[in-house]
């Protein structure tokens, strides 16, 4: 009896204390569940009574874009034409991005129309090449729609290339045009010309002119400035030059304009004046075409240089009149056979009278071994692209396409 009341009280106290702690823990747990569950009204009063907040992400706009992107050709298409087949358009929205590239990552430039309804490539596609297209458009609510396509262009059965002058890496005179001869006649000249681009330092406007359907020359309005650097990109691969005939050439050509040298030949005075960068280097006695064989007037460009060559009248319609097997220091001025060359057989003609069959003769020695004679000096101081102007001859002006002589055409006619 002595110890039970105390013992009972102690047990009861512990029991009540344990129940209090349990109740406290249950209260805290209930509070935590209520806070996490969001089942009660929030302070902002924005609850919807269904356990969701009005600002919940579950109410974000999930509607599909109304914009529709269309790509032609369709995904997987083969034998696709290199021009006119690639088209990207958007309906019920506006295009915001169009990316076209080949498997090497080379991009095809193009432009989205001002109204955003279409995209057009700026150039043709290469032949036998796989391209990937990625296009994105947005509707009026800013929702995006995207489309992709991959296709392969045709492999042409018939092709052409352009054979050009001057050569890559060369240094040429101020009169040198960039001239391209095509291996097939071109019936789509605008497409071919558009595929040839120029970059010059310093910048100058360069324009092309067609001579017939297989030759295209480019030049500035006036002679090139000395030191100009010219880079030409021939992006002919895939250009349809004529029905069913495609270019297969993609090449970059660079050349530099050297010093300015312009030589003026006076057929009446029988002299030529050589100017370098506007200053007279030398005045040299010469002979030009005799009556009936007069030398062309006009601006001519040195297109070929030969230390020694054979000149036979048969090749230019003067059969039997001459055949000289060792003409020294010969530099071509026209396709028809006009040269400025060394002459060891002219006797006293130089500076006195005209005695040639149309060429410009400069005193030389047989074999061309003497570097001190005028012909050797002129040859050693000339380069491809130098200008030789003939005046006061009794013949007409040389045709612009007879050699690299487009300078004899006015700029207005050149760009017409």
Automatic annotation (TrEMBL):
Domain L,D-TPase catalytic intervals: 261-391
Positions with biased composition (Gly residues): 39-48
Top-level lineage group: Bacteria
Active-site residue numbers: 341 (proton donor/acceptor), 359 (nucleophile)
Annotated Low complexity bias: 53-65
Pfam family, one: YkuD
CDD domains cross-referenced by the UniProt entry: LDT_IgD_like_2, YkuD_like
Keyword Transferase among record annotations: yes
Pathway note: Cell wall biogenesis; peptidoglycan biosynthesis
Region Disordered: start-end pairs: 39-65
Statement: the UniProt record of this protein carries the keyword Transferase: yes
Keywords for the protein's UniProt record, in alphabetical order: Acyltransferase, Cell shape, Cell wall biogenesis/degradation, Peptidoglycan synthesis, Transferase
Stated name of the protein: Ig-like domain-containing protein
């Amino acid at each position: 009896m002595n110890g039970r009341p105390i013992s009972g009280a102690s047990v009861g106290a512990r029991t009540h204390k344990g129940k209090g702690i349990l109740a406290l823990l249950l209260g805290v747990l209930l509070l935590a569940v209520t806070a996490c569950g969001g089942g009660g009204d929030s302070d902002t009063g924005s609850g919807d009574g269904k356990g969701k907040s009005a600002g919940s992400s579950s109410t974000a706009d999930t509607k599909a874009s109304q914009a529709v992107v269309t790509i032609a050709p369709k995904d997987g298409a083969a034998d696709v034409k290199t021009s006119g087949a690639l088209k990207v358009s958007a309906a019920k929205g506006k295009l915001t991005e169009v990316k076209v590239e080949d498997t090497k990552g080379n991009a095809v430039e193009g432009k989205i129309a001002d109204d955003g309804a279409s995209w057009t490539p700026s150039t043709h596609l290469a032949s036998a090449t796989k391209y990937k297209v990625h296009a994105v458009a947005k509707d009026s609510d800013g929702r995006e729609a995207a489309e992709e396509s991959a296709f392969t262009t045709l492999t042409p059965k018939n092709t052409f290339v352009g054979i050009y002058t001057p050569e890559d890496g060369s240094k040429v005179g101020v009169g040198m045009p960039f001239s391209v001869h095509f291996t097939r006649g071109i019936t789509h000249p605008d497409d071919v010309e558009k595929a040839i681009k120029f970059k010059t330092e310093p910048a100058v406007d360069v324009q092309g002119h067609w001579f017939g359907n297989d030759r295209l020359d480019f030049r500035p309005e006036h002679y090139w400035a000395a030191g100009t650097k010219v880079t030409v990109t021939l992006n002919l691969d895939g250009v349809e030059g004529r029905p069913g005939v495609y270019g297969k050439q993609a090449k970059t050509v660079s050349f530099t304009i050297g010093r300015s040298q312009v030589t003026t030949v006076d057929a009446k005075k029988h002299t030529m004046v050589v100017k370098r960068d506007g200053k007279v280097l030398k005045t040299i006695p010469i002979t030009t075409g005799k009556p009936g064989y007069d030398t062309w007037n006009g601006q001519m460009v040195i297109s070929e240089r030969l230390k020694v060559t054979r000149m036979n009248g048969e090749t230019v319609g003067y059969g039997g009149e001459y055949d000289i097997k060792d003409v020294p220091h010969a530099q071509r001025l026209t396709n028809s056979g006009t040269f400025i060359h060394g002459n060891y057989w002219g006797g006293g003609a130089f500076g006195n009278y005209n005695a040639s069959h149309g060429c410009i003769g400069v005193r030389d020695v047989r074999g061309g071994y003497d570097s001190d004679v005028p012909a050797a000096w002129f040859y050693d101081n000339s380069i491809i692209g130098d200008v030789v102007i003939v005046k006061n001859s009794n013949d007409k002006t040389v045709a612009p396409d007879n050699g690299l002589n487009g300078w004899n055409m006015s700029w207005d006619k050149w760009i017409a």
